Amino acid sequence: MYQDHLASFAVSSHTHAAPPHAIAPLRIGMLGLGTVGAGTYTVLQRNAEVIAARSGRRMELVMVAVRKLARAASIVGSTVALTDDPYAVVNHPDIDVVVEVMGGTTLARELVLRAIANGKHVVTANKALLAVHGSEIFAAAQAQGVVVAYEGAVAVSIPIIKALREGLSANRIAWVAGIINGTTNYILSEMKTKGASFADALADAQAKGYAEADPTFDVEGVDAAHKLTLLAANAFGVPPQFDQVHVEGITQLDAVDIAFAERLGYRVKLLGIAKRHLHGLELRVHPTLVAADHLLADVNGSMNAVMVKSDAAGLTMYYGAGAGSEQTASAVIADLVDLARVMDVAHQHRVPALAFQHSAIAALPVAPIADVETAWYLRLDVARAARTVPQVMAVLADAGVRVRLLEQFDHADDAELNALVLLTDPVQERVLRAAVAQLEALPHVMGFASTLRMERLA
Ligand code: HSE
User: Which residues form the Aspartate/homoserine dehydrogenase NAD-binding domain (predicted)?
Assistant: First the structure.
């Protein structure tokens, strides 16, 4: 039955009428032919008919700029003009839209600004570029009346920018949170399910084309922070405020804590969290304990998921591939289809780049991490023979930290030690840190405490 359905889809997919010849094609210039560029080329070719039937125009790839011409020729053959001069693309008189999939923030910024100055639209999957230089780029695009679209920049295959900009436009949004880096989610999943080492899991993620050119962006949480910056802008009507995001990655995570969290019914995930408060925002990326029965706990491998809490729609959740060649191409081409549909529309009638009208965007203060309130997981390594628990509880009670659960586990590596694991109620970070400093000074507490934030996201 399912097979039949697929077969009939395959037949019908060839029967779409071509768009009327009178409508000019969308003429595309591309910067880069790496993982995302090659995927975009392949999907544009393979799905040309269905894409044209949806957009009302044919997509014509006019020129691609690459660093390695021979490698690029092995991918596109003689179907597309190749150049090693990216300015030939952004200055090309017969190109309507520049697809920037080269990455980086220096040359990419220059080229994107040049394309905009030349009156060209831009589609990019470059989250670093928009998180860091977004205000400048979006202002230039607004002044020129051109589109800068970037669905592929955030949680690649998930249409989360479209959901925020269009689907949820009636709502006041309270928070956006989720797993927005495929590489780190893949690493954490491989470590948990297969006992893989961090290094092996990262190498695997790189081989699969999930990781950034510089994978420290992934594992140190920077890539997730880039994406969170764009999510927050679309959710709250603020400009990209990347420098205000508190960022922690997964490199400092101890496998012991992942295992203890599991035993207490939690999973550790790298989350990006943006919350709106009365007077400002919280913007943070860090490893986080979520309950094992939470929807985010079962998002594994390179998959991503984003939850949005809004006042009218309530809680919504979006799930899909968070990295990958054709998965990102899907979003890049969706932006091209959107553009093909509105190319001839006056700029003020197009969907605004950051969900809010350009004139309505205003920065909000971002709370320092010390002011942020969350529940906590604490691990203290304590001398086995000592009666440390009453002292620990007294310190926490005096500091105003309420303990919800306390467990003692055997220490994995040292028979003389116990691991004292505590879960707290929500408390301001500065209060928790002050209490932890006192705990670390207790006579039978060894080394530093391990601290991880917890979220309910309900
Ligand atoms: N390196 C990114 C990730 C690619 O792993 O999520 C997709 O943005």
Answer: 32-151
- Best residue among 223, 270, 299, 332 to mutate for probing ligand 1's pocket (most ligand atoms within 8 Å of CB) is 223
Topology annotation, domain 2-158+328-359? Rossmann fold (3.40.50)
For 59, 231, 315, 370, 429, the CA distances from 374, given in Å and listed in that order, are 48, 21, 20, 11, 7
Annotated catalytic residue: which of 227, 269, 275, 309? 227
Secondary-structure class of domain 167-321 per CATH = alpha beta
What residue spans in the chain does CATH classification 3.40.50.720 cover?
2-158+328-359
Look up the pTM and report it: 0.95
Active site residue 192: no
| Ligand 1 contact, 32 CB (< 6 A) | no
Tokens of 231: 């999510």
Over the stretch 33-47, which tens digit does the pLDDT of each residue have? 999 999 999 999 999
Cβ–ligand 1 contact at 183 (below 6 Å): yes
All CATH 3.30.70.260 domain ranges in the chain, comma separated: 370-454
CATH of domain 370-454: 3.30.70.260
Alpha helices in 284-388 (DSSP H): 325-342
Query: Residue whose CA is closest, atom 8 of ligand 1?
Result: 323
Edge to edge, the sheet with strand 81-83 lists: 81-83, 59-65, 26-31, 97-100, 121-124, 148-149
Task: Work out the average pLDDT over 97-120.
Answer: 98
CATH 3.30.360.10 in the chain is located at 167-321
CA terminus-to-terminus distance, the chain: 39
120-140: pLDDT as tens digits: 999 999 999 999 999 999 999
Question: For ligand 1, is residue 221 a contact (CB within 6 Å)?
Answer: no
| Residue 1 tokens, joined | 């039955």
Whether residue 220 has its Cβ less than 6 Å from ligand 1: no
Residue 242 confidence class, pLDDT cut points 50, 70, 90: very high
CA–centroid distance, 399 to ligand 1, in Å, is 40
